[in-house]
Design goal:
single chain; 324 residues; mainly beta; 4-stranded antiparallel sheet; 4 helices; 14% helix; globular
Length: 324
């Protein structure tokens, strides 16, 4: 080998080493006690105390992107969307006594998707969803459970798009303090790729939103070049964490993964999810602590498994829980 070729070889080898040191990978140390606890509880679906793949309601409609909360009465509430015969997404709310069988109660209308629900602390509920045309975040308030189940909103707000000229959506509600609603969501950065936002709605009249670059960077460390979208906040081990989806390659629905993010450190752990059949793609993650149908405290997880990464019999909405 000539000196010139040797020099070129060494330079190329150094470049490869440098690239490998920058490739994403799980840290030897979890991002936090909460993220470690989540992985221990939820990574292995086969160890769950209860589960269902391909979740549907009593009308046979798929419950895609379902997010579930528990009412004070113990009833489980799910908000989700379904592609209907009109070719548009419709968000809906359903109730259940066992997390496995669901009664559809109200359809929030054509062009609503990616819904999220939170109790307001006073017997009522706040609902947020993505609304089209001109994809934006819509927020609705309901004075009581019956009002939610019949769609009688006391307050309505459709947020202006301030971060993207193309789309803002996939909301999650992080807190409700009186007339102030704190949310997260995504915006179509440069009208190209979804990235994270935080937002505040005051008095159902005043909206402010800002990019959440810190959360984006935590997921991008794993080589995520596609969309960073749906997320949910849950408390474990006495700490808050965020469960979030990241798409390794844009337009590849088989490349979605779930990550557990620690807001304090700004780091995220990839959740190595394992299903009975070996599905490989997981999107629209949400999690909450509940009392399960057997009366035990449990962590409930909801995930959408795209067909492109699904094992036989596992495509669609997966719901499972693990006793705490």
């Amino acid at each position: 080998m000539t000196a010139a070729r040797l020099s070129a070889f060494v330079a190329a080898a150094l470049a490869v080493v440098l690239l490998l040191t920058q490739l994403p990978g799980a840290s030897a140390h979890p991002a936090s006690a909460a993220t470690a606890r989540f992985v221990a509880l939820a990574a292995d679906v086969t160890a769950a105390d209860g589960h269902r793949y391909g979740l549907t309601d009593d009308t046979g409609a798929t419950m895609d992107a379902a997010q579930i909360v528990q009412a004070d009465s113990g009833t489980y509430l799910a908000v989700y969307h379904t592609m209907r015969a009109d070719g548009r997404f419709h968000s809906a709310v359903a109730t259940s006594a066992d997390l496995l069988h669901w009664q559809r109660r109200h359809d929030f209308g054509a062009g609503s998707s990616q819904p999220a629900l939170a109790a307001d602390g006073h017997g009522g509920y706040v609902l947020a969803y993505e609304k089209d045309p001109r994809n934006h975040i819509a927020v609705r308030a309901y004075d009581e459970l019956d009002a939610l189940l019949s769609g009688r909103a006391a307050h309505r707000f459709d947020a202006p798009r301030t971060l993207s000229a193309c789309a803002e959506g996939t909301p999650a509600i992080t807190a409700v303090h009186g007339d102030t609603v704190e949310l997260t969501g995504h915006y179509r950065a440069d009208c190209d790729t979804d990235r994270q936002l935080t937002a505040t709605l005051k008095d159902f009249t005043t909206w402010s939103a800002a990019p959440d670059h810190r959360l984006d960077r935590a997921v991008e460390r794993y080589g995520t070049s596609g969309n960073i979208g749906d997320r949910d906040r849950v408390g474990l081990a006495g700490e808050p964490m965020v469960l979030i989806e990241g798409q390794r390659w844009r337009d590849d629905f088989g490349s979605w993964s779930a990550y557990a993010y620690d807001p304090a450190s700004g780091r995220a752990d990839r959740v190595p999810l394992r299903t009975g059949g070996g599905s490989t793609s997981f999107a629209n993650p949400s999690a909450t602590r509940i009392t399960d149908p057997g009366g035990h405290r449990a962590l409930l997880v909801s995930l959408f498994i795209p067909a492109e990464g699904a094992a036989p019999g596992e495509a669609g909405q997966l719901v499972y829980w693990r006793e705490l």
